[in-house]
Amino acid sequence: MRVLTLNVLAPTYHGWERRREAIVAGVRALAPDVVALQEVVDVPDLLGSGWHEVWHSRRGDGDDGAALASRWPIGEVHEIDGRVTPRARDLPWSGTVVAEVLAPEPFLAVHHKPLYRLDGERERELQAVAAARLVEAVAPDPDRHVVLLGDFDARPDSASMRFWTGRQSLDGISVCYHDAWETVHGDDPGHTFTPDNPLVRAGGFHLVRGRRIDYVLVRGRPQGPTLRVVSCERALVEPVDGVQASDHYGVIAELVVPERPPGTQGSL
Question: What are phi and psi for residue 79, nearest 5 degrees?
Fold first, then answer.
């Protein structure tokens, strides 16, 4: 399966009609099977027809929000509100959606969107713990495949991302999701939101150094991830016909079911 996360930058910013064409061309060339979109208004407008959509329940004043789209049908859907504190209400559509994707090898796709503020790591910690608890309640079987993706607005060394990737516990619990980018590229910074992007330089975060804040993660058993990461790359980095698609670069990963599950012994 090929999974993509992309914050498209809401249509109210920076020449939407030209950016829309760049997004459409870039995403369709990638041919993903599952897509998590943030700041999106209309999914078919970008992806075309035939997709199954699951939206976060709330949207912003410009009707933008977060949507998960799948080429395969969607089964059960669960959602939690991410507005865990008064400050977290700065983002109306903050929250987490867990959707059952009825692929040939079914899995759960978790679209997570925490608070964007640089000073909001406390909220992101609370949101991460709540989302992790939801996933464990929906999928207590550790062998069930879970793919977690989205714009997390947190660097890999932040507390919330350290929690997600098994480097620390929060609120008395711990989980371990495997970062697809890190699996393939190790310590390469892989910035997805950087002043190297002209739309970042033109936006409100222009004084902040580059960082990696968009992720594809795979839930793991005690001895490793249930899906193997074949590849993981940034997406829509280069302009399309001179037009930068978004202020975020996307992340696309190819995942497969391994021949031998983690925790089992192989032959020499």
Answer: -145, 145
